[in-house]
Amino acid sequence: MSSLPFQSGEELEELLLRVFLNAADSSPVQQRLALTFTIHAPSAWLRVDGRNGQTATLSRGDVARQQNSDLTFAMSGETAHAFWRGDLNTVAAMTAGKLKITGPLLRALALAPGLAKVQAAYRQETGEAGSDHQTVP
């Protein structure tokens, strides 16, 4: 695995904010959900709230941690990096306990079609835009 493009939780939160802003489009939110990504080693929190059906709002850190979400994705920084790059087999990661999803799993699976755009934005933001990655289910 390549070295991580972040050293602290704050750097990871800032990176993910840029990624989600770059991946955003102006069309209405398809899934009316709030998602929280909780990451350890380093500690980081990011919340994406699309419940209003219009534009998703982003929050990070304590603000993200204190709000309820429909789905929560918990993982380490290393697993998060692989997930956002598109290198993580999510089923294997869940089975191994590296990725924990709290909330309705079918709703989480419904997010898969939009994941490729966010992963491409992550690779671009981390300087890996030319890498040949594909989302691994």
Q: What keywords describe this structure?
A:
alpha+beta, five-stranded mixed sheet, globular, SCP2 sterol-binding domain-containing protein, 5 strands, Nonspecific Lipid-transfer Protein, Chain A, 20% strand, SCP2_sterol-bd_dom_sf, 137 residues
Count the domains. Answer: 1
The CATH topology label is Nonspecific Lipid-transfer Protein, Chain A
CATH class wording: Alpha Beta
- Number of helices in the DSSP assignment: 6
Gyration radius (Cα, Å) is 14 Å
The separation of the N and C termini measures 18 Å
CATH architecture: 2-Layer Sandwich
Helical content stands at: 25-40%
Overall 3D shape: globular
Q: How is the topology of this model organized?
A:
Elements: H1 9-23, E1 34-40, E2 44-49, E3 57-60, H2 61-65, E4 71-76, H3 77-85, H4 90-95, E5 99-102, H5 105-109, H6 112-125
Parallel strand pairs: 1-4
Antiparallel strand pairs: 1-2, 2-3, 4-5
Helix pairs in contact: 1-6
Protein name: SCP2 sterol-binding domain-containing protein
Organism: Deinococcus arenicola
Protein described:
InterPro entries: SCP2_sterol-bd_dom_sf (IPR036527). This is SCP2 sterol-binding domain-containing protein. The protein has 137 residues and is α+β, with helices and mostly antiparallel strands. It has a single domain (9-124), classed as SCP2 sterol-binding domain (Nonspecific Lipid-transfer Protein, Chain A, 2-Layer Sandwich), CATH 3.30.1050. The chain contains 6 helices and 5 strands. It has a 5-stranded mixed β-sheet. Helix 1 packs across helix 6. The longest helix is centred in the first third of the chain and has 15 residues, at 9-23.
